[in-house]
Design goal:
The structure holds 3 protein chains of 3 kinds. Chain A has helices spanning 2-23, 51-67, 80-88, 103-111, 141-148, 175-183, 200-209, 244-248, 268-278, 280-288; strands spanning 44-49, 72-78, 94-97, 116-130, 138-140, 166-170, 195-197, 213-218, 227-232, 255-263. By secondary structure, chain A is α/β, with parallel strands linked by helices. Chain B is mainly α. In chain B, helix 1 packs antiparallel against helix 14 (247-275), helix 5 packs across helix 7 (130-155) and helix 8 runs antiparallel to helix 9. The chains are: A alpha/beta, B mainly alpha, C mainly alpha.
């Protein structure tokens, strides 16, 4: 019997330890903590969706709750698909998406009495990056397509070194994968040899390591370990770098808006969130993370 | 009882979620499909081909067993027959400790340290390759094969060894021609379970194999030193983001059915082998 | 002469064979030590009180890993709370009631297979069965909710999915512990007029408890380190606050490590190794506790 009690005491102890730990989960004063414990209040916001936007939304959330003390904001990724599904089925208040909502999705939402409301919260340029040792400085969209469909497999064929091309792509479920497939590959298949990596930062890390590497990532993910390729729409047009100016004046061919969708008319807290995101503070963060602000360009 | 129900429930549910795929996508196209393009727009797509996934799983697993088997067997023999008591008391727990390392931690070390190293040593185009996957999976297969083989070796009755020594054989001759053959069923079981562990592992392969849906067309070494896509990697990478109930979701469950069938077969073989092994009594 | 030479040759062969085997063994031990050393070497500088006590920061997933630690503790407790009663019940049935029938053989085969099912398949099952079928069913038919309450990945379904994953460990360990209780104990109890259930409850189970505890601890250790099943059924990639209820997602150490290794722009190896160190350290401590519990149980056994 003594042993029986011992086991029970151990389990209760473990439970107690876990609860005890969580009980003292107060955010430390002066830290950038956003932990809010307590019951779900009306001022809680669930944001889900695009991995391209998840980083940005998390930084927004941290800054937002600093000035809106009563609010709790939870941000999760999962991809644009997941976000839009969650919005339709009520699993999210706001959904992040790196692509516009599809007509079939709008229809599905309406069937459930939800009218998705669209906001362009930032702009993004899809940067083409290569290894810093690669001598090639610019490519046409047609060349890019030939690379990613493996019609050319060696940089020599494009005037570079004798180096096998290593294609780095996102996973099939990523909004960015679909965007690139539509806008560069004309909806053709990617080469089977393409590495399908779980995130943009993996693409950057890989391209930085592989002398033959090439990949596409949102401009916010570019680091100085890789080199950006300038793009030409066709052989006759000028080579354009992905930067804020070229995104705004429409000359960079792989620019795209990034969206947030609300389910129906935004409620009070959602409205506060969207106003703040579109306002100077939110858009300053957009610029700080390397995306292109839609307003308040900051001069 | 509950466990039978649970196994059947798992199979039933994975099947239940997978089956509706066949209304829009034939079983032949799935089993014989050479491309995995689940989000390819119409009219060509989507394509849910099993073969590139299966090929990658088989290649990475075979590679990991090729690396792990000699190492694990040697370790089992060393611990069971050669090492002194002191050394054994250090070696055995170390290997058992390795078995408890969470796979995601192995994936981390594979991504950050092993992958660049292998790329440099073999001068590969990219560090993401079947080879790195095999090396990291060998870390998981070694403890499985080694501990089960060591159990089998320890279960060989002492009289076998004494008889062999009495006939004038050296200890090594006794190990090689008497102990190892007697322990063979247990060793086979260990290998089967090691294969099962490797082929079912997810996090490591997502992180280090590059997930390229290729089929072999430049020979084995080329395939081994380039990226591949595995069944588990595909499910793990895509199940998070897939729309529930759609064809892509169903195709992932279909891959789950294939994986389930493979691992259950391996387990049954291992179980049969173990039952032919003279059992050690509980101490 | 000939015999002598062959003996000498055999000796030489033996020496070479043992040398090769020894070398191969250290080819195994070397990388294992290197692996542990790598995590320790890069992870230790990351260790600090604030790393363990602060929530993560968004910009580089820096800050701390507090919510992931707590989430993992919740998961350990919740999983074992579900798996332990089921596992003990199953093991009691198998050893004390079922006898040696063909059914028992089948059940054992099922347990072996359950242990061999890849964890990602458990994850798919958890998603299809617990999240969508059970959870979705509760929402649709019981709560009639218009937004998911239980039909979404959350802690409860993580508990359930992992309970299925660790059930074979718990059953096997419990069974072994029950079998180790001498038949004489049962016979004495039954001889005194106790019923079968009284015998199990008052005599067999208490005697076997240390062994059961070992199984429970091993199961908890497994639950703490699993990634694939919880990634689909429970884990949040980033959630600075703690889960508020069983139908909330939670951050978890293994998934947080995956997230920081693969998803975060420009992470430092030190941060990644720090998370890995906490995870591996936690799992090791649990497993060492299991070994100690087992050793103590064996020593205290007086029969």
């Amino acid at each position: 019997m003594g042993q029986a009690f011992g086991l029970r005491a151990t389990l209760i102890g473990a439970l107690g330890a876990a609860i005890g730990l969580s009980g003292c989960a107060k955010p430390e004063p002066g830290s950038s903590s956003t932990a809010r414990l307590g019951p779900t209040s009306a001022a809680s916001l669930q944001i889900k969706g695009s991995d391209t936007l998840v980083q940005l939304a998390q930084v927004w959330a941290e800054a937002f709750v600093r000035s809106h003390r009563a609010a709790t904001v939870t941000v999760t990724g999962g991809g644009s698909n997941t976000g839009i599904m969650a919005l339709i089925h009520g699993g999210a208040d706001i959904c992040n998406s790196s692509r516009p909502i599809a007509p079939s999705e709008t229809a599905a939402a309406r069937a459930r009495g939800v009218e998705p409301t669209e906001f362009v919260v930032a702009r993004d340029a899809l940067a083409i990056v290569v290894h810093p040792g690669n001598p090639i400085t610019d490519l046409t969209l047609a060349q890019l397509k030939r690379i990613f469909t493996a019609r050319v497999t060696n940089w020599r064929e494009l005037g570079g070194h004798d180096e096998a091309i290593v294609i780095n792509s996102r996973e099939t479920t990523a909004g960015t994968y679909v965007f690139f497939q539509e806008h560069v590959l004309d909806s053709e298949r990617y080469a089977v040899t393409a590495l399908l990596l779980p995130s943009s930062s993996e693409i950057v890390r890989n391209v930085a390591q592989d002398r033959g590497g090439i990949g596409y990532v949102g401009i916010g993910y570019v680091s100085d370990q890789v080199r950006i390729i300038r793009l030409r729409r066709d052989a006759a047009s000028p080579a354009v770098a992905p930067n804020a100016r070229n995104v705004r004046n429409g000359t960079y061919p792989l620019a795209r808006p990034l969206f947030e969708y609300a389910a129906g008319d935004p409620t009070k807290i959602e409205r506060m969130w969207l106003d703040w995101v579109m306002g100077p503070e939110g858009q300053a963060i957009v610029a700080r993370l390397g995306f292109v602000p839609v307003r308040w360009s900051g001069g | 009882m509950a466990s039978i129900l649970l196994v059947l429930l798992i199979l039933a549910f994975v099947l239940r979620e997978a089956a509706p795929l066949l209304r829009t996508y034939s079983l032949g196209r799935f089993l014989g499909g050479t491309r995995w393009n689940p989000t390819l727009p119409s009219p060509a797509g989507p394509e849910f081909g099993l073969l590139p996934n299966l090929w990658g799983s088989v290649l990475v697993t075979a590679g990991s067993i090729a690396i792990a088997l000699p190492l694990a067997l040697a370790t089992a023999v060393f611990i069971g027959e050669i090492a002194g008591r002191r050394l054994r008391d250090v070696l055995k727990p170390t290997i058992e400790l390795l078995a408890t390392v969470p796979s995601v931690a192995l994936g981390f070390v594979g991504t950050v340290a092993v992958s660049p190293l292998v790329k440099a040593v073999f001068d590969l185009d990219t560090g993401k390759s079947a080879m790195v996957g095999s090396i990291m999976l060998a870390f998981m297969a070694v403890p499985t094969i080694a501990t089960i083989s060591e159990d089998a070796i320890a279960a060989v009755p002492r009289a076998y060894r004494d008889g062999s020594l009495a006939l004038g054989a050296t200890r090594w001759q006794g190990i090689w021609s008497v102990v190892l053959p007697a322990a063979r069923p247990g060793i086979v079981a260990g290998i089967m379970l090691g294969v099962g562990r490797a082929i079912g592992e997810t996090m490591v392969v997502i992180m280090v194999t590059g997930n390229a849906g290729v089929l072999p067309d430049h020979g084995l070494w080329y395939a081994f030193t380039h990226a591949v896509r595995t069944i588990t990697g595909t499910i793990g990478a895509e199940a998070l983001e897939v729309a529930h109930g759609g064809p892509h979701y169903r195709a992932l469950f279909m891959l789950g059915v294939v994986l389930f069938v493979i691992t259950v077969s391996l387990n049954l073989i291992a179980d049969l082998a173990l039952n032919r092994q003279p059992r050690r009594t509980l101490q | 002469m000939g015999a002598d030479r062959s003996v000498a040759r055999n000796r030489a062969v033996e020496r070479i064979a043992f040398g090769v085997i020894g070398a191969l063994t250290f080819l195994v031990i070397g990388p294992i030590l290197w692996l542990f050393g790598y995590i320790l070497w890069h992870g230790l500088p990351q260790m600090s009180w604030s790393f363990l006590r602060l929530p993560p920061r968004a910009i580089d997933a820096g800050g701390g890993i507090y919510p992931a630690i707590v989430g993992t503790l919740y998961l350990m407790v919740g999983t074992i709370a579900i798996a332990l009663p089921l596992g003990i019940g199953g093991a009691i049935y198998l050893t004390e009631y079922a006898g040696r029938s063909r059914l028992v053989r089948l059940v054992h085969l099922a347990i072996v297979n359950l242990a061999g099912v890849p964890s990602i398949v458990h994850g798919l099952f958890g998603l299809g069965f617990f999240v969508l079928f059970v959870g979705g069913g509760i929402d649709r038919y019981v709560l009639r909710a218009d937004r998911p309450v239980w039909g979404q990945p959350c802690l409860l379904w993580g508990f359930c999915t992992l309970a299925v994953v660790i059930l074979p460990i718990v059953i096997t360990a419990t069974e072994e512990a029950l079998l180790a209780v001498p038949a004489a104990f049962r016979e004495a109890s039954l001889g005194l007029g106790a019923t079968r259930w009284q015998t199990v409850r008052r005599v067999v189970l208490p005697a076997a408890l240390p062994g059961v505890l070992t199984g429970a601890i091993l199961g908890v250790g497994r639950a703490a380190g699993e990634t694939a099943p919880v990634m689909i059924t429970c884990a949040a990639s980033f959630m600075p606050s703690l889960p508020r209820g069983l139908n909330d997602q939670a951050m978890l150490l293994p998934y947080h490590l995956y997230f920081v290794v693969t998803q975060v722009p420009h992470p430092t190896v030190q941060l990644q190794a720090g998370i890995a160190l906490v995870l591996v350290g936690l799992v090791f401590m649990i497993n060492i506790a299991a070994v100690m519990a087992r050793t103590r149980a064996r020593r205290r056994r007086r029969w």
